[in-house]
Amino acid sequence: MGKCKWFDKRKGFGFLTSQTGIDYFVHQTGIVGDGFRKLEEDQSVRYIVGEAADGRAIAMNVIVV
Predict the structure, then answer these.
(1) Distance (Å, whole) CA 28 – CA 4
(2) pLDDT in tens, 15-46
(3) Which of 10, 42, 59, 63 is the most exposed place for a label (fewest CB within 10 A)?
(4) What is the pTM of this model?
(5) Long-range contacts of 7-15 (CB under 8 A, 24+ apart)
(6) DSSP bridge pairs for 57
(7) What is the SS3 string spanning the chain?
(8) CA distances (Å), origin 21, targets 4, 5, 54, 60
């Protein structure tokens, strides 16, 4: 569980902040939904932590709660 820290709707990516203060990159393709997905600042979200091809931790399966 966490919140959207910021999200650039034009570029389709941003960062989420966990309840423990860790930031995770999120791409619009990692948000559950149809079409082009986006988040709003301070929106509460649920997600799982995955790994990008370069080894970075990222947010995946993001659901707005």
Answers:
(1) 12
(2) 999 999 999 999 999 999 998 999 999 999 99
(3) 10
(4) 0.90
(5) 7/38, 7/39, 7/40, 7/41, 9/38, 12/36, 12/38, 14/39
(6) 51
(7) CEEEEEEECCCCEEEEEECCCCEEEEEHHHECCCCCCCCCCCCEEEEEEEECCCCCEEEEEEEEC
(8) 12, 10, 22, 17
CATH label, 2-64, candidates 2.30.30.220, 2.40.50.140, 1.20.1420.30, 3.40.50.300: 2.40.50.140
**For residue 23, how far is the Cα from the chain centroid?**
9
